[in-house]
Design a protein that fits this description.
Blueprint: H1 2-20, H2 41-45, H3 59-62, E1 74-83, E2 88-100, E3 103-119, E4 136-152, E5 160-172, E6 176-191, E7 194-201, E8 206-212, H4 214-224, E9 232-236, E10 239-249, E11 254-265, E12 280-291, E13 295-308, E14 314-328, E15 331-341, E16 353-364
Antiparallel strand pairs: 1-2, 1-16, 2-3, 3-4, 4-5, 5-6, 6-7, 6-8, 7-10, 8-9, 10-11, 11-12, 12-13, 13-14, 14-15, 15-16
């Protein structure tokens, strides 16, 4: 059964790779990338490894098939994190519930934005004087709402299937905005202590249409000699994630979970471990240790990159992630230290930077 499942995954990978290879010219790389930053303290502390193990209210984002593993009737998750020393803020909220023994649903909301950006276009008046009271502030924010549904398969015992419909809104102050729509599909399968997952993001090719407010931009663009932007559409190509996890029970109270995800992208060569024009592969791995199903210690590695230094040399790096969690009486508090970066020869400033992620969850009847 496991062999046939992986054969199906391989066939899907080959079909997607062939069908989108010729579409790269008309699709931008990293389109709607804010949807791949990640949500949840557990996930981010494990290097964004969740495809095979997602089993709470965040499953609508990571793999909607995992919604069938909800143990309680009402499940709520809230998350807040700040990126780039607090410049950008990433927020997430989700509500999930089982409908019956074989189906479940969830609704999730994501916001990633930078607020209080100064608009200094009118800083100098017509007489050449500086007027600080003319400064206005605006936000650049990306929003997404996910409506997720999961159902038990009648064809293969234990196979869980799920889908998420995404509604996207992106806003750049009063200068531009965009609306988009896409669909994700996922599957999970458990065999003994092994867990398998498949997540096909943007499987329908997500469409995002941009509209620019040319009247607000015209004066500034004419002064700088740039061409005015035109309304256009972006297509986000599919991304395929294959996950495998293994559960270990060391003794009566101590257990562990080792998991890995393989991200396949089809929008051209990326700065990942294995890259090529038609397909790029980005692996990441995560570990979770649990004591009495109450206290959790987590770690993960992801985001392999090769950077060019000022001296022309190259440096390879991986992103470490750490976190802890506590669960009691239906309440869960997860903390993660993610996106850790170390000072290098080509960085500006000498301080190390990281992002602290806080998640609070409740599940009960």
């Amino acid at each position: 059964m496991i062999r046939s499942t992986f054969c199906c995954l391989l066939v899907m990978l080959l079909v997607i790779s062939w069908s989108v290879a010729t579409a790269q010219v008309s699709t931008p790389k990293y389109s709607n990338e804010f949807l791949n930053v990640g949500v949840g303290g557990r996930a981010l502390s494990m290097g964004n490894v969740q495809t095979a193990i997602a089993n709470d209210a965040t499953a609508g984002y990571w793999n909607p098939a995992g919604l069938l593993r909800l143990k309680d009737k009402y499940n709520i998750t809230l998350m807040h994190s700040e990126l780039f020393a607090g410049i950008a803020k990433n927020d997430f909220a989700s509500f999930a519930m089982p409908l019956d023994s074989s189906s479940a649903l969830a609704i999730s909301v994501i916001r990633l934005g930078v607020d209080n950006i100064a608009d200094t276009r009118r800083l100098q008046n017509e007489y050449g004087y500086i007027q600080y009271d003319s400064i206005r502030f605006f936000s650049v924010a990306d929003y997404a709402m996910l409506l997720s549904y999961a159902r038990q398969s009648n064809l293969i015992e234990g196979l869980q299937l799920g889908t998420s419909a995404k509604i996207i809104y992106r806003n750049v102050g009063e200068f531009a905005n965009a609306y988009g729509f896409g669909v994700d599909v996922g599957a999970q399968l458990q065999r003994g202590d092994w867990q398998f997952g498949l997540m096909a993001k943007d499987v329908t090719t997500t469409f995002t249409a941009w509209t620019h407010n040319v009247e607000e931009l015209e004066e500034a663009y004419q002064q700088t000699g740039n061409d005015l932007p035109e309304n256009h559409a972006e297509l986000t190509l599919p991304r395929l994630v294959i996950g495998v996890a293994r559960f270990f029970q060391f003794n009566e109270k101590l257990s562990g979970l080792l998991a890995t995800d393989l991200d396949f992208t089809f929008d051209g060569r990326r700065n990942v471990l294995l890259s090529s024009e038609p397909v790029s592969l980005d692996p990441h791995i995560g570990l979770e240790l649990a004591y009495a199903n109450t206290v959790y210690v987590r770690g993960g590695i992801n985001n392999y990159q090769e950077t060019v230094n000022f001296d022309g040399g190259t440096a390879k790096s991986m992103q470490p992630n750490f976190g802890v969690g506590v669960k009691t009486n239906g309440l869960s508090l997860d903390l993660a230290l993610s996106r850790v970066s170390y000072s290098e020869a080509n960085t500006v400033g000498g301080a190390n930077t990281s992002s602290v992620v806080i998640s609070l969850s409740y599940s009960g009847n």
